[in-house]
User: What shape does this take?
Amino acid sequence: MHRLRLSPRKLSFNSAMLVLYALHLFLLWIDCVLSNSPWRPFGGAIMLSRLFSQLGIGLLRCLAILPYGIVARFGDALGYLAFLIPNSRKRIVLTNLRLCFPEWSDSQRYSIAQRAFRHAVRSYVERSIQWFGSTEKLLSLIEVDSEIDLNVAPGRPGEQPAIFLGYHFVGIEAGSIWYSRLGPSASLYTPMSNAYVDQAAKDARGRFGAEMVSRGDSARAVLRMFRENKTVMLAADMDYGMRNSVFVPFFGVPACTLTAVSRLAQTGRARVIPFVVEVLPNYRGYRLKIYKPWQDYPSGDEVVDARRMNAVLEAHIREMPEQYYWMHRRFKTRPEGEASVY
Assistant: This one.
């Protein structure tokens, strides 16, 4: 009888290949989450799709046990590897930067694209701590710089309703979850195509009691939340098509921009409190910056209000362009007669 004998070198090589293959599958899973597309490994078997989604969420739960610095560095490394692989997300990032920053050199755009890619993938790995880490661990990572009194929760009985308006910087998840602790709140979200991941995300984002509401059910639901004295958290800086949207400039390029914020503020007589979350250098966590409510908003003109929202966002992006979520096809919808930019 012949016995199979593997040398230590052969075993080491096989182990390394298994690790690389596992990382490759995890990167594919992250890409599906990033693009909100179905996860169909090995020919699209539904059972395997659910299995790998469970494994992906299980890995996030395991990572939540580790120190933040290790998790953040792991995510950073994954983002670095993912950027080396030709993929559609990379092309979208570079296209967005070319449209928004034509004055930059190719090398400057490429450098920012790489850093943005690393930040984006890292942010999904850091969901481990944001979703499944202990409350103490999460709170210890977030610095707060607020221009409003956080001891007086917006939306409490007798006060004007509030919209907590965020932008899609990579740290938005941490800031939204932190803010949901302050009082009754609700958050608008876009359902994911993977039902298992979608449910896990809703449970995690509502870990401090926030009510999760699908964008498709948002109008009536938001007005009900205002009546229930709940602060409504939302972000409106993505392209969801022409419904309830207008074309206004974004870095000088016509961008299909939602008018939901001004319409909801007008109908619900709510004030708009903007916030931005910055990922701090040297793996130190996040800084949540909360600004004073917008004055003279809404103006009564949806186009004027959409222009204002984009102009404010542009100013924040110029401060930290590598932390904005450039993977989204921000210019997907084009004015009639214009060709696709992607």
